[in-house]
Amino acid sequence: MRASESITIDEPRVRLHEAVRLALASRREGIVRVEVSVEPRCVLTWLYAQPWTDHVFWSGRDDGWTMAGAGAADRIEAPSVDALESKLKPRLNTASDSVRYVGSIRFQPMLDPADEWQPFGRVRFVLPRVELRVQDGDATLAINVMPGESVEDVQRVLDQIVTEPKALPDRLPRVVQREDSPTETAWRRSVESALTAMQTTDLEKVVLARRASFEFDGSLDPFVLLNRMRSSTQNCFHALIGRGQGTENRTAFLTATPERLFRLDGREVVSEAVAGTRLRSPEEDQDSVLRDELLHSEKDRREHAYVLQAICSALDPITETLVVDPQPSSFNLSNERHLRSVVKGVLDEHVTAFDLLRSLHPTPAVGGTPLPSALSAIAHHEPFDRGLYAGPIGWIGRDAAEFAVGIRSGLVEGDHLHLYSGAGIVEGSDPEAEWDEIEHKLDGFSAALSALG
């Protein structure tokens, strides 16, 4: 439900209170989202000011839609996508159209989380208590009301909203130490071992990841880091899932990822294969050369084909129609480009976002092929828990959903930042080149740290 009058964000409480009162007087069963128009403000600075312990942020890659949510009207923690569906689907079936749960899924939810990933569980989704959404210059402030809640309950929430945005600090603490896991020597051995396995087993591709851990001389604010990353990582999804209050107590996972897992709108689904990498050059002629190298690279096209084939194989049994780009194109980012093929389809009746999560994750872009062998190689070679890295992150509503793949990501823990990125290893891969590729993939974070350090 939406109030038609435009207000400033400095005076939302009276209007929201009245809108909630009217909504609850005529409500049906289920979750109700009540919103009012407000003057657009910086979404991150609004979120930064809110007092609740749950924080979520989502900015779409190409739809101009940004959302920040604070607090939790509802939390769902589950051990698997199946369990998530059993808990969340009944709620969504009776919810308002615009209700959206935001959350994340571990790369391998069946594995126990390491200590640093405990706050995020295996599968965790939150319905924000209050939200600020901005799209195409229009902004709305909203509150989500659960079944059984009264106007008085909602008023207590409204009283807590901080209406004035809080300025983000302009500096980050100084980096005092970096540790790479695995080390460059161990990385080389892992890649060489994977290449040997491709000659002697059924393994065709494995995505091996690295973790770069930074220690700072003070607590790191994830909102500041994400704000700076958004300007240096264009054409990406930007997301944050955080817990805790105050800079010293915040734990947050944040990502600037170019990779869409899927977007669902009614029965229309869009996915994409993104694989193969080349750096970009500021010189136009050299940049064109690098683009052509990627488009005609046998190794990169083979790596890309593994991903595309897996996506098509997953979607074909559950779609009425499926259309695939005839040739991969160059997908340009700020510092690099990838091969990309878009896949569009119309789902069979009764296929849901939960079915898509089960079918599509993990793709060979973040796991490998065949998947069992790739997962075994990852477990053998990676000396850390991936956690939410390379897992689905996004939102889900009654008839729509969108999920990105949480690559190019970081975990903030007080005065520590763990950065994660990976490279697809196929026959012909060079260990040193793959190490350098990951360094470049981390440039978005590095640029933000350099700008603020």
Tell me the layout of helices and strands:
Layout: E1 2-7, H1 13-25, E2 32-38, H2 43-49, E3 54-59, E4 65-70, E5 74-78, H3 81-93, E6 101-105, E7 123-127, E8 130-135, E9 138-145, H4 151-158, E10 175-181, H5 184-200, E11 205-216, H6 222-232, E12 237-243, E13 251-257, E14 260-265, E15 268-279, H7 284-295, H8 298-315, E16 319-324, E17 329-332, E18 336-347, H9 353-360, E19 368-369, H10 371-381, E20 392-396, E21 400-405, E22 409-413, E23 416-426, H11 431-441, H12 443-452
Parallel strand pairs: 1-2
Antiparallel strand pairs: 2-9, 3-4, 3-12, 4-8, 5-7, 6-7, 6-20, 8-9, 10-11, 11-19, 11-23, 12-13, 13-22, 14-15, 14-21, 15-18, 16-18, 17-18, 20-21, 22-23
Describe the protein's architecture and organization.
With 453 residues, the protein is an alpha+beta fold. It has 12 helices and 23 strands. The protein has 2 domains: 157 residues, no CATH class; 271 residues, Anthranilate synthase (4-Layer Sandwich), CATH 3.60.120.10. The chain is globular, with a radius of gyration of 22 Å. The N terminus is likely disordered.
Strand content: 25-35%
| Poorly predicted segments | 1-9
Radius of gyration: 22 Å
Number of domains: 2
- Architecture of the largest domain in CATH? 4-Layer Sandwich
What is the residue-mean pLDDT, rounded to a whole number?
90
- Beta strand count: 23
Largest sheet: 13 strands, mixed
CATH class group of the largest domain: Alpha Beta
Helix content: 25-40%
Any idea of the CATH topology of the largest domain? Anthranilate synthase
User: How widely separated are the two ends?
Assistant: 44 Å
The CATH superfamily of the largest domain is known as: Anthranilate synthase
- Count of helical regions: 12
Shape: globular
Structural class: alpha+beta
